Amino acid sequence: MTELTQKEDDIQKMLVCKSHLGTKNLDSKMSSYVHKRTVDGIHIINIGKTWEKIQVAARIVAAIENPDDVMVVSQRPYGSRAVLKFSQYVGASPVAGRWTPGALTNYVTLKFKEPRLLITTDPRTDSQAIRESAYMGIPVIALCDTDSPTRYVDCAIPVNNKGKESIALVYWLLAREVLYLRGTLPRSQPWEVMVDSFFWRDVEELEQQEKDRQAAAEETAAPATTDWSQGPVGDWADASAPTDNWNAPAADAGGW
């Protein structure tokens, strides 16, 4: 697959995952990434620039010698699974869930770390992590929507950061490009990891699917049984009575 066709395929994936749909609000510093505005007032993101910024961000991540020095943060639930999967394949340090204040500035805290790069899912929900990274001089890569603040963000990836499919796809593309640049995965070979594995899934939904799967398996494995509640198949009441008449008098012995 050539670079051109790969770019077209990636852009088609972005369209399917609605990565180009922004919000009705627009930050002044994000206006250069907006293609147009719909009749409903929703800003459409130029996903061609989104793809280019993913390539730039991947080169920044690949430039870090120790993958563990890359910290990936997501307080948004939709991005927690994508962050964990990205860290699994790239070797980064994930922080999915609540951010511990002082994790980058206070060395007394148990989760204190000194990363060389910070990747955030939403600059608004991850504002504490971005602010601490600014204090420590740590560069920041962020997934920015049309209304996201870009203060202290060094590399903004314009994308819909509110949809679980869009967030998962960006992290999947970023992880694949990092593996390409490191030489772990040749560009001539497609990545066997599916984008679906990066999607966030509700625990209750997974439990319900597992119950439905088990119920279907039990119905398939159960042997066929006769339903006796329907009564006997034949009508025994209509069966003819014995023809022998037991009430008849005994035969005379002399008749023999």
Describe what you observe in this structure.
- It is a single chain.
- With 256 residues, the chain is α/β, with parallel strands linked by helices.
- It has 6 helices and 7 strands.
- It has a 5-stranded parallel sheet, sandwiched between helices. Strands 1-2 form a two-stranded antiparallel sheet.
- Strand 5, helix 4 (127-136) and strand 6 form a beta-alpha-beta unit.
- Helix 2 crosses helix 5 and helix 3 (80-90) packs parallel to helix 5 (164-182).
- It starts with a helix and ends in a 35-residue tail after the last helix.
- The model has no long low-confidence stretch (mean pLDDT 83).
Share of helix, binned: 25-40%
Label the structural class: alpha/beta
Largest sheet: 5 strands, parallel
Radius of gyration: 33 Å
* Proportion of residues in β-strands: 5-15%
Find the count of extended strands (DSSP E, 2+ residues): 7
Spatial arrangement of strands, main beta sheet: 4-3-5-6-7
Give the mean pLDDT: 83
Terminal Cα span? 108 Å
Q: What's the number of helices?
A: 6
Apparent shape: globular
Helix-strand topology string = HEEHEHEEHEEHH
- Parts with pLDDT < 50 across at least 5 consecutive residues: none
